[in-house]
Each structure stands twice: as structure tokens, then as C-alpha cells.
Amino acid sequence: MTHEVDTSEDGELSGFFDAARREGAAPSGDFMARLQADALRNQPVPAARQRGSFWSDLLRALGGWPTVAGLTAAGCAGLWIGVSPPDMVLTLFQDQTVIQSVDPLSGYDYAMLGG
Amino acid sequence: MDVPLDAMNAYEDDELLALYAQGDAGAARALTARLGPRVFSHAQRLLADRAEAEDVTQEALLRLWRIAPDWRRGEAKVTTWLYRVTANLCTDRLRRRRGTDLDSVPEIADERPSVEASMQRKARAEALQAALMRLPDRQRQAVVLRHIEGLDNPEIARIMDLGLRAVESLTARGKRALEGLLLGQREELGLHDDT
Questions:
Q1: Which chain B residues are within 8 Å of A21, Cβ to Cβ?
Q2: Which of A53, A96, B28, B131 is deepest in the core (most CB within 10 A)?
Q3: Is B67 exposed, middle or buried, given 0-12, 13-18 or 19+ CB atoms closer than 10 A?
Q4: What is the pLDDT of residues A38-73, one digit of tens each?
């Protein structure tokens, strides 16, 4: 990063100041490497992002505890109804074992036969 | 995520410092590359001793890294703060050095292969450095900040914790003293015909 130097006030010493500006002492490469190592060694460590476990990631993906609680309740209810159906469910479906068949071409057949 | 190094050039110092405090390694590298040479060169000008300038630079930057998480953006310029810390560290060392014969002030290290064209310039820079080392510490600091680092007086006033008039007075006195020490050498340093 360089900046313009106002030389208007250098007066009779301008030749000396100009030489000093151009001959500025440069740090050695080794020294710069040491400075850089210092900078990195003393750098504050950023707060590491919390890396979650598989289960916490899954929990977050599903939508959190409320969703998981709902899913669990629905699963238990389904299992219970399947294993030990309540009377009301049995009554509801007892007489409805109707076999329905669909014959999409029947009307067409009749029409052809009837000529 | 780290900001790419190339993109760092567009950031102000305090923005980089905020990224540094958040753990951005690229900001650490960019800030070191940007500020390290500047602090080192300033310390070298105030101390005229390479090893001491390195120690001061290391300490000044360490303090910057430590303060980074608490840095309040917009309140002070990072460079102003750094120049001030650097100058204070240099002053401590100069105090400890008191009594040292000025003639034993180390010469500026000449590490690069010099070509004839740059030899005059080096000689002038060395003559100026030697003359600067004969000024009182505060005068030297003010002259270096004003005429070599190119800072304006209000910023120098903030760095040195002085009023504007005091800064103007310090730089004026410093310059007069330098003229007394250097103008007699102009001819031998080739400044009569190419300046």
C-alpha cells in the first residue's frame, strides 16, 4: 500500500529526503516469515461450528421434537389398531367384505353382439 | 471462509484487522505483508539498528494481534496506532542506549548489490540517517513522519500526542538542524547538479 508523499516542504533537503524514501530499509524474507508465523500463532481461533451427531442431524431434518412426537404417537396408534383392533373397528368393517369386480369392456361386448 | 489474498488489497487496514480477529488466515498474511515493512522501516529510521528495528517491529505487531479482537473500527487508524507504539518502543530502546557514543551508531546495512547509479542515493540516505541520529528523539520522529513517511501534521499530532503547533515547531527545528548538518555535504554527494 503506497501513498503519495507531499514533498513541497522538503526545501533544500529534498535530495536527502528523496534518497531516504527510495532507500527505505527492507525487511529480510526470513524476518517477514517470522512475522507471519507470529500473526498466525496469535490469531484468535474462531468459534468452531458445532458438529451434530447423526441423531441430532436427523432430528433437525425431521422438524424437531414436536414432529417426532407426533410421528411416534401416530405409529403407536397404528400398531395398536393392527394388533388388537377395538370392537368399534371390527363392527365397522365386519359386513363389508364385498368383492367388486370391474369389467370395462362389458358394455362394448354387448353392443357388438347386439349388432 | 478465507478471503483470497488478491482481494485483500481492496480492504482497509481496520477491515483486515476485523477479519484477522475472526480467524481469517489470509487477513493475517495480508496485514503482515502490508504493515511489517512499514513498521520495520520506521523503526530502522528511528534506531538506525537493524536487529533492534526487527525486535521493535515484532513487538509492535504482536501488540496489534493481541488488541485485534477489541479493536474499535472507525476510532483510530491502524497505522496511527502502530506508529505510536513503534515510536514508544524505539524511545525505550534509545533511553537505554543513552551514553552510547554517537559515532558508534551502526551504519545502515548495505545488503543489495549496488550499481553506480544508486550509490549516490545510498550515500545521501546514509548521510541523512547519520544526521537524523544527531537530533533529539522527538525531533527525529517528527521529521521522519513528516518528510519521509509523508504523513500530514494532524496525524503526526495524534501519533505523538501533541498539538498541531508543537508538531510544526518540532519539524521546523528538526529541519533547520538537518540543514546545518547536511547542506555542507551537498556538493560531495552530487546534489548540486541533479536536484
A1: 148, 150
A2: B28
A3: middle
A4: 999 999 887 555 556 677 777 777 777 778 788 888
Is-contact B11 B28, C-beta < 8 A?
no
Cβ-contact B124, A15 below 8 angstroms: yes
Q: Which amino acid is at B150?
A: G
Q: Enter the pTM of the model.
A: 0.66
DSSP one-letter string for B42-81? HHHHHH--HHHHHHHHHHHHHHHHHHGGG--TTTS-HHHH
Among all residues of chain A, which has the CA nearest to that of B178? A13
Nearest-CA residue of chain B relative to A24? B41
Complex ipTM value: 0.76
Contact across the interface for B45 and A20, Cβ inside 8 Å: yes
Nearest-Cα distance to chain B for A29, in Å, is 11
| Closest C-alpha to B50, from B115, B129, B145 | B129
- Are the CB atoms for A7 and A17 separated by under 8 Å? yes
Asked if residue B16 lies in contact with residue B8, where contact means CB atoms within 8 angstroms, the answer is: yes
